[in-house]
């Protein structure tokens, strides 16, 4: 079956050259006429593409032309249509973040990897952690704290010593960043239906920002996070290198 392909490429020389070669080989259609998007770049570009084109509800097949490519397939000029046709779909459900600021404004954003809170000054953040409306930690003293999806569990979450979550496990990772108090708390694994709320204690003296993937909101006073029930995206992966297998293998990297 012939696919109507729309290409999107990162603004790098390597991605631009690959874009030109692929269009010359396979042609392309505008996004509003496509039935699949091929994204050329790294993971950062993939995340931006998912946010930018999510409303189109098109599957996205990525090819690695950047420094990090966990969400991408290997780049190759040959047999692209066959690779797309035999690719395995992976459905991702993003996190929905609602952040309230000191000024009283409210901002909503989606995150496919994680929502992270970080201190804005040299002062440690003091954060109350609530799950489904119940306070679980009255005062977490830390550089920050994050909530990660399964797909994002191998990104910032892993760097912060959080757990790797199997794809499709219906779980979230709640991971502190450089925690000071409580001393022995290293995070939690939560059911994906959990609603997480962070309340910032003393936000004027100890300001905190909240970031959903790359969208930052500064001077927040409280942040609500839950898995989106309305929006999903579908990534396509080559069968021999699917995302579930990558997440599994990541747990054995030394």
TrEMBL record:
<feature type="binding site">
    <location>
        <begin position="154"/>
        <end position="159"/>
    </location>
    <ligand>
        <name>NAD(+)</name>
    </ligand>
</feature>
<dbReference type="GO" id="GO:0046872">
    <property type="term" value="F:metal ion binding"/>
</dbReference>
<dbReference type="GO" id="GO:0005737">
    <property type="term" value="C:cytoplasm"/>
</dbReference>
<feature type="active site" description="Proton acceptor">
    <location>
        <position position="43"/>
    </location>
</feature>
<feature type="binding site">
    <location>
        <begin position="43"/>
        <end position="44"/>
    </location>
    <ligand>
        <name>NAD(+)</name>
    </ligand>
</feature>
<dbReference type="GO" id="GO:0005524">
    <property type="term" value="F:ATP binding"/>
</dbReference>
<dbReference type="InterPro" id="IPR002504">
    <property type="entry name" value="NADK"/>
</dbReference>
<keyword id="KW-0520">NAD</keyword>
<dbReference type="GO" id="GO:0006741">
    <property type="term" value="P:NADP+ biosynthetic process"/>
</dbReference>
<keyword id="KW-0418">Kinase</keyword>
<feature type="binding site">
    <location>
        <position position="151"/>
    </location>
    <ligand>
        <name>NAD(+)</name>
    </ligand>
</feature>
<dbReference type="GO" id="GO:0003951">
    <property type="term" value="F:NAD+ kinase activity"/>
</dbReference>
<keyword id="KW-0521">NADP</keyword>
<dbReference type="InterPro" id="IPR016064">
    <property type="entry name" value="NAD/diacylglycerol_kinase_sf"/>
</dbReference>
<dbReference type="InterPro" id="IPR017437">
    <property type="entry name" value="ATP-NAD_kinase_PpnK-typ_C"/>
</dbReference>
<keyword id="KW-0067">ATP-binding</keyword>
<protein>
    <recommendedName>
        <fullName>NAD kinase</fullName>
        <ecNumber>2.7.1.23</ecNumber>
    </recommendedName>
</protein>
<keyword id="KW-0547">Nucleotide-binding</keyword>
<feature type="binding site">
    <location>
        <position position="143"/>
    </location>
    <ligand>
        <name>NAD(+)</name>
    </ligand>
</feature>
<keyword id="KW-0808">Transferase</keyword>
<dbReference type="Pfam" id="PF20143">
    <property type="entry name" value="NAD_kinase_C"/>
</dbReference>
<comment type="function">
    <text>Involved in the regulation of the intracellular balance of NAD and NADP, and is a key enzyme in the biosynthesis of NADP. Catalyzes specifically the phosphorylation on 2'-hydroxyl of the adenosine moiety of NAD to yield NADP.</text>
</comment>
<dbReference type="GO" id="GO:0019674">
    <property type="term" value="P:NAD+ metabolic process"/>
</dbReference>
<feature type="binding site">
    <location>
        <begin position="113"/>
        <end position="114"/>
    </location>
    <ligand>
        <name>NAD(+)</name>
    </ligand>
</feature>
<dbReference type="GO" id="GO:0051287">
    <property type="term" value="F:NAD binding"/>
</dbReference>
<comment type="similarity">
    <text>Belongs to the NAD kinase family.</text>
</comment>
<dbReference type="InterPro" id="IPR017438">
    <property type="entry name" value="ATP-NAD_kinase_N"/>
</dbReference>
<keyword id="KW-0963">Cytoplasm</keyword>
<feature type="binding site">
    <location>
        <position position="48"/>
    </location>
    <ligand>
        <name>NAD(+)</name>
    </ligand>
</feature>
């Amino acid at each position: 079956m012939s696919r109507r392909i729309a290409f999107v490429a990162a603004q790098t020389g390597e991605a631009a050259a690959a874009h030109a070669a692929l269009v010359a080989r396979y042609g392309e259609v505008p996004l509003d006429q496509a039935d699949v998007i091929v994204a050329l770049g790294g993971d950062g570009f993939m995340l931006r593409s998912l946010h930018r084109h999510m409303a189109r509800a098109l599957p996205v097949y990525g090819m690695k032309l950047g420094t990090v490519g966990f969400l991408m397939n290997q780049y190759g000029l040959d047999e692209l249509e066959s690779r797309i046709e035999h690719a395995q779909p992976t459905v991702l459900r993003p996190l929905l973040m609602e952040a309230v600021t000191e000024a009283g404004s409210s901002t909503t954003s989606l995150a496919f990897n994680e929502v992270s809170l970080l201190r804005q000054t040299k002062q440690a953040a003091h954060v109350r952690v609530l799950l489904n409306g119940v306070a679980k930690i009255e005062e977490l003293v830390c550089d920050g704290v994050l909530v990660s999806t399964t797909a994002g569990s191998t990104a910032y979450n892993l760097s912060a010593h959080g757990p790797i979550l199997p794809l499709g496990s219906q779980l979230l990772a709640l991971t502190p960043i450089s925690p000071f108090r409580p001393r022995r708390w290293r995070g939690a694994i939560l059911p994906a239906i959990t609603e997480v709320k962070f309340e910032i204690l003393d936000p004027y003296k100890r300001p905190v920002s909240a970031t959903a993937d790359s969208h930052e909101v500064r001077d927040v006073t409280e942040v609500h996070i839950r898995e989106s029930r309305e929006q999903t995206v579908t990534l396509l992966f080559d069968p021999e290198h699917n995302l579930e297998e990558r997440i599994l293998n990541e747990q054995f990297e030394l």
